[in-house]
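idk why but the lab printer keeps eating my pages so im just putting this in chat instead. protein + adenosine monophosphate:
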Amino acid sequence: MSMNPQSQIRSALEQEQFLKILSREEALARFEAALFPRAVPSEKRRLGDALGLALAEDITAPIDVPPFDRSNVDGFAVRSADLAAAGEGAARSLTLNGETIPCGTAPRMQVAAGTATPIATGGPLPRGADAVVMVEHTQPAGSDAIDVRRAVLPGQFVSYAGSDIARGEALLRAGTIIGSREIGMLAACGIAEVNVARKPRVAVISTGDELVQPGEALAPAEIYDTNGAIVAAAIDENGGEAVFLGAIPDDEAKLESAMRSALAEADMLVLSGGTSKGAGDLSHRIIGRLGQPGIIAHGIALKPGKPLCLAVCDGKPVVILPGFPTSAMFTFHDMIVPVLRKLAGLPPRSDAKVSATVPVRIASELGRTEFVMVSLVEGRDGLIAYPSGKGSGAITSFAQADGFLRIDALADQMPAGTEAEVTLFTPHVRVPDLVIVGSHCTGLDLVTAQLAHAGLIVRSIAVGSLGGLAAAKRGECDLAPIHLFDDRSETYNTPYLVEGLELIPGWRRTQGIVFRKDDKRFERLGAKEAVAAALEDAACIMVNRNQGAGTRILIDRLLGGARPEGYWNQPRSHNAVAAAVAQHRADWGMTIAPVADAVGLGFIPLAEEHYDFALVRARKDRPAVQAFLDALGSDEVRAALERAGFRPAQTNKS
Ligand code: AMP
Ligand code: MG
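predcted complex ->
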């Protein structure tokens, strides 16, 4: 394929601009070298105000804890030698001394041979005593003596001074996050104030004319500012104090003034967007004017995240994250978190990692360290890591993923079957109770909602019908939702099942033609007539579906070989078809009734599609599978499906 002149220019520009692409390691090393070593600013805090902060210094115990030898039980302080010969048949009698030692009272009398002193839990052991007998193991013998019928070892029920914390012992290290346990240790030592690292104030700015803050209305061509919220949260998660300054339009003067005032107030500045050097990409140019040494790396061999820009302006780190939210997240965690934690006086983050098998081949770009998000499910022998990314623009992949794996810059793929190390997003693996892999449908959410409310973890991985079938055959899921039309038998789904799989009827979705309700061309027509009318009007644009979609088969049949304008617009979802028509990018397309209703489009029904489940028979007895089948057959879920525009199929309630 030859390039058109415009893309030639663009690619030449890109080459010039990213000429000095650094490896991930090199970029990080240069960034850190420009910032460290430096002292972590600290401040004194009262214990109660230190929660969640990092200690700025090592703390040595100033006293012994407990400060004296202490009784652990209610009983009598004794000399163990007096009771050496005591036993079931040999009671020893001890005379009680004339004092009792409750908590907080210093003993005055010595425990002489043949005597005992009553003592409470927490009371200091009197001179002469070396052990304590529990009150339950004694009998009163008159008013001023006790009988003991068991021997005691020296030290029994005594906590010695300094046995918990010894004076001079390292109590807590610098960098420790102060939680309730740490506060307890400090309080036990009588420490009322500690030196904590002052949280670095990190200013956060989103850039882009298209950005709108959540809570405000979205105009055409606008999107919600996602990075502002994630970056601010990730800063707080890693020891910083985020100050979100909103989204600034792509306007050089406005952006420069926002960056200047941010840097005047904050210890660090994190921007997002505008790094790919399109017409509106200005931040990197402004950085050159903000301080020395300026840009350290722009263009790093990471995927996602190549446009990441790292700079230092007069000692303060300035970072521009890529605009796509997932790219922004990965680069932030991989390249910015290490620096932020150092500034915050925290030790490097210790990520939890697990080993898992990758069931499918993952292609990778040579020369860039690549991060791939994965969902973990339990396979026949061990964990399986499904790549769950939908491309760098997809934010949901983060929510559905359990962690990520890294493909080395020198590899062009990760072969199927690779045992890979997965870095977890949370400290623990949460293996789902039910795994559904295949085609996604909004109706599915209505079934799984029941399970989620019952406390079951359901993982639904959308890979399409065929991908789901393959996963089911490998035994990697419990159920594969499918809607596959078989041309020869003119039936859905059943012809695709193999040994070990069983078909569970799901529901029917009505497919039909969508159009805008005010479009008179389609008024009162049947589906075939509507398509004929559309084909007659050269100005009428269609939106198609991707190859392999069940809907596509229906469309091609209706078109009968015609290729009207819009045929090559082939989105991968029902919702995208509805959006294209609603937004006037197309005039008609085919989607399912609930989706058309949700967007308020006109709908001409054509055919019913069967959305069923291929159940892995070997997994049928699992409680979560049974719960799913029960939910699917329940009156409640069937009613909910009907309300949403689906027609539940006959399900065996057995
Ligand atoms: P840019 O780096 O500014 O060219 O942005 C690349 C892509 O990321 C564009 O599709 C932007 O609309 C998108 N993007 C940039 N900033 C944000 C943000 N704060 N939230 C969500 N998407 C963004
Ligand atoms: Mg932008």
